[in-house]
Design goal:
The structure is a single chain. This protein has 205 residues and is an alpha/beta fold. 40% of the residues lie in helices and 17% in strands. Strands 3-2-1-4-6-5-7 form a 7-stranded mixed sheet, with helices on both faces. Helix 5 packs parallel to helix 7. It is globular. The mean pLDDT is 91.
Length: 205
């Protein structure tokens, strides 16, 4: 189960969905109030690629879109072992998403994180230092280390659906709040190494 929240997506999302579907994944896309100019993307996803598309009538935020998708998956696919969340902008390669999906098959209550390497010279400044700052905040708040607090590529086992649905936040703060909640509950974070990809110097972030 692959869950992708999307706001005004482009061809990158279609290409990603094609690769995931060809690998046998079920793809759920939440249209978080995208503009009319982007509706063709969602039409292609639903009618040609047979993805499940759920739409918000207005932009509610990434956190709200993730919660909507999680509720749908919990109700519609109760036998799935969990869900992998991924971004729609091309920063997560299909192979990395599938790698986290495979890790998710490991039994137990643990959150899997697609963890990037920020040591390279070509990493955008705001991404490198933004992650260092939030990683420090996470450590000071929980006493635990997290190498990539900003990754949207996460594997969530079904045992954690209820906790994830109750975490406060409807926009980007939701993802950090989720990590903090995992830390408070002593739920392990499992780091899965993935490629470090930035589209146009991460301007869309």
């Amino acid at each position: 189960m692959i869950l992708i929240p999307a706001l005004n997506p482009d061809q990158n999302l279609i290409d990603l969905a094609k690769r995931l579907k060809s690998a046998g994944s079920e793809v759920i896309v939440v249209n978080d109030g995208s503009g009319k100019n982007f509706l063709d993307v969602f039409r292609i996803l639903a009618s040609e690629l047979h993805c499940i598309v759920i739409s918000h009538s207005a932009n509610l935020g990434k956190g709200a879109a993730l919660k909507t998708g999680l509720r749908h998956i919990a109700e519609t696919f109760p036998d799935a072992c969990g869900v992998v969340t991924a971004d729609a902008d091309g920063q997560h390669g299909a192979q990395d998403i599938l790698r986290v999906s495979e890790a998710l098959e490991t039994p137990g209550e643990q959150l899997f994180l697609g963890s990037r390497d920020f040591s390279g010279k070509d990493i955008p400044f705001k991404s490198k230092w933004g992650n260092r700052i939030t990683s420090l905040v996470y450590f000071l708040s929980t006493g635990k280390k997290c190498a990539d607090t900003q990754t949207g590529l996460r594997g969530i086992p079904k045992e954690l659906y209820e906790i994830c649905g109750a975490v406060p936040g409807d926009r980007y703060e939701y993802e950090m709040n989720l990590l903090l909640e995992m830390g408070r509950r002593n739920i392990p974070l499992v780091q899965v190494p993935i490629s470090t990809i930035y589209m146009e110097n991460n301007q869309a972030s």
